[in-house]
Design brief:
By secondary structure, the protein is α/β, with parallel strands linked by helices. The chain has helices at about 25-40, 55-60, 75-95, 100-115, 135-145, 155-160, 170, 190-195, 220-225, 240-250, 270-275, 290-295, 310-315, 325-335, 340-355, 360-370; strands at about 15-20, 45-50, 65, 95-100, 120-125, 150-155, 175, 205-210, 230-235, 260, 280, 300-305, 320. It folds into two domains: about 15-180 and about 360-370, Rossmann fold (3-Layer(aba) Sandwich), CATH 3.40.50.2000; about 190-355, Rossmann fold, CATH 3.40.50. It contains 16 helices and 13 strands. Strand 2, helix 2 (about 55-60) and strand 3 (about 65) form a beta-alpha-beta unit.
């Protein structure tokens, strides 16, 4: 059962991060690493999840990470429980600032924080406005226009631009703070990493991370595989389309060349990236692409989609391909695998570009919003 923290004396910087659901996804890992960085600078902080979707050992190991509900909500009563527990937590923790992550947590957390007298209330826009569910988009627009948010952080210029038709009162509080990524570090050799994940040692391996969903568009990779004989694809992530993707792989005759590895602890991502010759990311839309920057920071050559945010983040440090064309993906992957010199050059450029998207720089940007 959830227990609110003990009453504490107010301090100069007490920050409460609120995210919707506990799982090892990009926004959640970003919040975890950013708060860890801010704590090193003397900030007292907690990361609060409205509910638990999946267990994440790295999160549960920290006393400053909590869940208000130990399972996904099943009805109005559970939503009421979450609101009551969040209000109690804010009253007990006495934060000087509250940060709500994405389109559900931002209005909920900042709205309650306003009612309870919290001075700094920061919303985080993790995705372009047009990708929000209609109800969430309407609530966020109203809440942001009324001044509930004292600052409204866009994770990329792509996200910032998506609000250009919003009221001036909303846009006036928008600020750009690029996402930051902790550079993955693995002590494994590529061969040992492949053994750990049960991947073949004798053929090229494409790696990708992300939720198994329509947005992440893993289907185009499956359709490209028949045109890439001898190439293996490894997918790290879980989601609602697992059964459909497995059926698609079977229908295409490539099941033996695809590994669905499920969700793993965030700490294992570095080992997984060590398995790859090329990182592939065919997402249909992204606000920023945390997974891509992690791969870049690991020095992997990257092939990603041509949408705006990938132009912004990857730039010339990778290959950008139409996300709708399996033939274009097969061509780009095949060309890169045949050219070891280009792989090395793009890997080095990727690592250099990723260094500009650090957790420390991101934490500094958020700290300024909380002052």
């Amino acid at each position: 059962m959830f227990k609110a923290p003990q009453m504490a004396n107010a301090a100069s910087s007490r920050v409460l991060f609120v995210s919707t659901q506990m799982e090892a996804a990009g926004v959640q890992v970003k919040a975890f690493h950013m708060l860890s960085a801010m704590q090193k600078d003397g900030v007292t902080g907690e990361l609060l999840f409205l509910y638990r979707k999946r267990d994440v050992a790295q999160f549960d190991a920290q006393p400053w990470v909590r869940c208000l509900l130990d399972r996904p909500p099943s009805g109005p009563l559970d939503f009421f429980r979450i609101l009551v527990r969040l209000a109690r937590h804010i009253r007990a923790f006495r934060p000087t600032g509250v940060v709500g992550f994405a389109h559900y947590s931002s209005p909920i957390a900042c709205g309650l924080a306003l009612l309870m007298g919290v001075r700094r209330r920061v919303a985080v826009q993790a995705n372009p406005a047009e990708t929000f569910p209609a109800g969430a988009r309407a609530v966020d627009r109203i809440v942001g226009t009324l001044g509930v948010y004292t600052a409204n952080v866009a994770a990329s210029q792509t996200v910032l631009d998506s609000f250009q038709n919003y009221p001036a009162a909303y846009r006036g509080r928008l600020t750009l703070v690029y996402n930051g990524v902790k550079a993955p570090k693995s002590d494994l050799t590529p061969a040992k990493a492949r053994v750990k994940f049960g991947l073949p040692l004798d053929r090229p391996v494409l790696v990708t991370t992300g939720r198994l969903s329509a947005q992440k568009n893993q289907t185009v990779l499956l359709k490209a595989l028949p045109m890439l004989p001898g190439v293996h694809l490894a997918i790290l992530g879980e989601g609602e389309l697992r059964a459909m993707l497995q059926a698609e792989a079977a229908a295409l005759g490539v099941s033996g060349r695809v590994s669905f590895l499920g969700e793993r602890p965030p700490g294992e991502v570095a080992d997984f990236l060590k398995c790859g010759d090329v990182f592939v990311f065919p997402s249909i839309f992204e606000a920023f692409g945390l997974a891509v920057v992690e791969a870049m920071a690991a020095g992997l050559p990257v092939i990603a989609s041509t949408h705006q945010s990938m132009h912004e983040v990857v730039g010339s440090a990778g290959v950008l391909v139409d996300p709708t064309s399996a033939q274009a993906w097969a061509q780009a992957i095949g060309d890169l695998l045949k050219d070891p010199e280009s792989q090395m050059r793009l890997g080095a450029k990727a690592r250099e570009r990723a260094a500009g998207f650090s957790v420390e720089r991101m934490a500094k940007g958020y700290a300024e919003c909380l002052q």
